[in-house]
Design a protein that fits this description.
The protein is of the alpha+beta class and 409 residues long.
Length: 409
């Protein structure tokens, strides 16, 4: 009774076998069958995804970046980079240092400071404008790399360059900001007025035609301010002598300058017990801060350094304790780290000692000086690391030459 059904099933199986053999024997036919089957699946199940993959709403891109300590360096021609502090180690006074940045002709490192990836960095330009970015937004580079041009990070105008930088965690703090210009003007403004810095910057201070903004600092209450000029004059006055003004005001006179003189820096009295001054030809000294009596702003100040042909004009000064360490940077990008314990404390009207050997027949001079800051929590210095075996060999040779020269002197 089932014979006819079985014969039909048998013929059907033979036809399927022949069909499958035909597919397996022809690659083009096989791909065509696969395409047909995928089209059927797509028509049957081809619906848009109803879920999406994304970051958690409470997770920001900044949360994926470690809040590590970093060293930021910038040059006079506007190159900036972010480095790990594991690039420098301590050397003795009078050495020649290690290469800190590869600069182009007529360029040199102008600013160096320690911060973290998550700190805000406010950039104040010579034209009196202010910009703000996070530390991690500055591209990281090696110790000898030139870095990234600031014009790629900030919308700077022609002829505009960054002259001062400020690191802070919260721009809405109830603190005052004090600004200083090359001609001796000072201005105190509430930091909260700079809380909303636009991408194209804000006016930080109004300037005269021939003046430039050179320094910006956060100000503590009842703090004394010290200004130093390149011709060796210094003045100390209380911040209460400077009235608070608006963001776009010009400020008041901090120090009256002689012809050809200009302000090279500003420090707060609480930043250290001694004044370190460094000349362009590698000389410097420490003087007790108490040697400079506080006076009213607007005076000519007191002599703080004896300028000679051998020393050249002053290029930088810092207030610091004698147990701290400093970095000196030359116009060729050479850096040297030294302890202030090796520098004697002497009077106001002296020229000091040689801090760094410079080529007497060359054009290399000291460009700037920076303090080495201590890490929070562990009490260790940030920059006390080993740059490598080759650098150790070079430093050992330099220190041996320095010891011989000091013995001869």
């Amino acid at each position: 009774m089932e014979r006819e059904r079985l014969e039909n099933e048998y013929q059907d199986l033979l036809a399927k076998i022949a069909y499958y053999k035909e597919i397996l024997g022809d690659e083009r036919r096989l791909l065509a069958v696969i395409k047909e089957e995928l089209d059927v699946i797509a028509d049957k199940y081809g619906e848009d995804r109803k879920t999406s993959f994304s970051y958690d709403d409470i997770l920001d891109a900044e949360d994926l970046i470690a809040d590590d300590d970093v060293v930021i360096t910038s040059t006079s021609l506007g190159y900036i980079k972010r480095m790990s502090p594991e690039n420098f180690r301590q050397q003795n006074r009078g050495g020649k240092g290690i290469k800190g940045m590869q600069t182009i002709e007529k360029d040199y490192i102008e600013d160096l400071f320690m911060t973290t990836n998550h700190h805000y960095i406010m950039f104040f330009t010579n034209m009196g404008r202010v910009f703000r970015i996070k530390g991690y937004e500055i591209p990281e580079a090696s110790r000898t790399a030139r870095g990234t041009a600031l014009v790629n990070l900030l919308p700077l105008q022609e002829g505009e360059k960054v002259n001062a930088s400020l690191c802070l965690r919260d721009p809405k703090d109830e603190q005052d900001l004090i600004l200083t210009t090359k001609s001796g003007m000072v201005k105190k403004t509430a930091l909260s007025e700079y809380a909303n810095v636009r991408r194209n910057g804000l006016i930080a201070i109004s300037l005269k035609e021939d003046d430039q903004l050179i320094e910006a600092k956060l100000l503590s209450k009842d703090e004394n301010i010290i200004l130093v000029t390149k011709k060796g004059m210094a003045i100390q006055f209380n911040e209460k002598d400077v009235r608070r003004t608006g963001r776009s005001s010009m400020g008041v006179i901090g120090i009256r300058l002689n012809d050809g003189d200009e302000v090279i820096g500003m420090q707060e009295s609480s930043q250290g017990e001694n004044m370190l001054v460094v000349s362009e030809k590698g000389y410097g000294k420490l003087t007790e801060k108490s040697a400079f009596k506080a006076q009213n702003r607007g005076g000519k100040g007191m002599r703080c350094y004896k300028i000679t042909e051998k020393t050249g004009d002053l290029v930088g000064f810092k207030l610091c304790d004698q147990d701290r360490e400093i970095l000196l940077i030359t116009t060729e990008g050479i850096m040297i780290r030294m302890s202030l314990e090796n520098i004697s404390i002497i009077g106001r009207n002296a020229s000091g000692v040689k801090l760094m050997n410079l080529d007497k027949d060359g054009d290399t001079t000291i460009a700037s000086v920076a303090k080495v800051r201590e890490s929070e929590g562990d009490g260790e210095e940030d920059l006390e690391t080993d740059p490598g075996e080759d650098a150790d060999t070079e430093i050992a040779e330099i220190n041996e030459e320095d010891t011989k020269e000091n013995q001869e002197e």
